[in-house]
Amino acid sequence: KQEVTQIPAALSVPEGENLVLNCSFTDSAIYNLQWFRQDPGKGLTSLLLIQSSQREQTSGRLNASLDKSSGRSTLYIAASQPGDSATYLCAGVDDKIIFGKGTRLHILP
Amino acid sequence: NAGVTQTPKFQVLKTGQSMTLQCAQDMNHNSMYWYRQDPGMGLRLIYYSASEGTTDKGEVPNGYNVSRLNKREFSLRLESAAPSQTSVYFCASSATQGGYGYTFGSGTRLTVV
Question: Is the pLDDT of residue B99 over 70?
Fold first, then answer.
């Protein structure tokens, strides 16, 4: 059974810093790995999708990597801004999508 | 805008009442899913439909039923609501099961009193 773990559960950093969010999964036979953002009281917004044949994806200040052999993915956020404050969810996808419990990120102005 | 539409956005039910949550997608996706999100528990899969005409149980199916009405629509029914079903419910779709990422609706916030 696929399990997805995200560390840390919460993170506060000063504005402008670069940061890394970590995600690990137990079953390396995933089709792809997807990162989402969720603002309080809102739905999920897809940030990046890494397919199993890829090692990383980039969108603006975000870069996500995938290492299937070690069961790990990271989300790198460059030059953080207060608007980046949200919960970030990692999800492993095989025949279903299994979510981690998320990292609550707070960027301090 | 293309995407996943859920109705209603908010609902309050009394214990024992029934209701149906509606979900529709206009992206021609084959697979659709229902999740619930609770504090400290994360997102948990209730039911999914890999393709039109099929439905399967997820992690927490008890107390729910689903109908894949057609390729676009996937509804979730609570036959006799219980306070334990107070949650935020999300519908999602994907082009194929496991492929090309998932798109989520904005959620239904359900309170059972």
Answer: no
